[in-house]
Amino acid sequence: MKDKARGTATLILRDQTFTVPAGITVREAIRHVGLVPESVLPTRDGELIPEDERLQDGDVIRLVAVISGGWA
Amino acid sequence: MKRCRKCGERAVIYMRQHRLALCKEHYLEWFVEQTARTIRKYRMFTKHDRVLVAVSGGKDSLALWDVLWRLGYQADGLYIGLGIDGGIAYSDRSREVVEAFAQERGLHLIVEDVPTLYGESIPEMARRTHRGRGKPCSVCGLVKRHIMNRVARDHGYTVLATGHNLDDEAAVLFANVMTWQVGYLARQDPVLPARDGLVKKVKPFFRFYERETAAYALLRGIAYIYDECPFAQGARSIYFKEVLNRLEEERPGTKLQFFLGFLKAKKQGAFAAIQEQAEGELHACEVCGQPTTAPGRCAFCRLVTPLTSPTPTPSP
Ligand code: SF4
Ligand SMILES: [Zn+2]
Ligand SMILES: [Zn+2]
Description:
- Chain A contains 1 helix and 5 strands, in the order ββαβββ.
- Chain A is mostly beta strands and 72 residues long.
- In chain A, 31% of the residues are buried.
- The model of chain B is unreliable at 312-316 (pLDDT under 50).
């Protein structure tokens, strides 16, 4: 049941894509899809965007994973 | 909407644990300044030192090299080719990224290629010796530590710097506390002084969250390898980092307190007894001459000498 008037935005993390309602903040959207905001950086067109920005209909936000692994 | 503390423009990043919001320009400036402060505060090195930065092609090590260069330190890079492909040509691509980075800035890079030098890639060494339950990470760590120290010694570097961030350190600490590996606790430190043939080792980024080093690389426009080493997938370190980030999410500052609290306890002598044990005498390896805890051949030489090693074995 999505709010047609507000539309949706898309979050992309590596090969995963999530659809979220527009109108919420980037931070809320990240939590909404079960990710931890501390573990990702939101970008639009390659530029870092603030977490308190509100998503617009049609926004495509790429999340850059900040965690890297390997034990050495 | 959060505004930059320095100029009042719209902030691009907010660090909850410091309650600090900054715009792009001031974030880049802050990050470089903080690194300089950490280097001074923990007496890591001075402008007189020759620093060797271990660079993997990932965001942290390239960001570190970039910052040290901007601060005017004498910092050269060391790239170690591990011979890891994993279907994504991981080693080849990371080498290209590091070479391009050095070239753009006119920096000096030393390249050591494990398969060329020792006749085997890291995964091959791990397979032959059945070490690490399918993951070559313990072999990889051993080989990298050995090569880093050898190159630093051979080329007269006084300090070895790595790009480890607070999340790396907190995850290692967390894992070692979960299993009470007290010997490792005693040895974990952002500054390990030189001793018995071991070059001083420092981690100038150890107070930055991983999110901050990633933001620096992104805002600075550093081209780094985003794909992980294929063996990092499902690594314990990633799991512990995720767990710590969930705690951090609920209580900003948790990771930082966890690690700084540990360093403080250590300084107060909480691990003194184990530290003494851990700092027992080192011996020179009879093959390569590098320091080792037990007399005889070091762990590295036991790993590689079954093959023709480029270092000639002196007759006993
Ligand atoms: S993940 Fe393991 S094998 Fe890959 S670079 Fe890190 S330590 Fe080496
Ligand atoms: Zn500003
Ligand atoms: Zn040896």
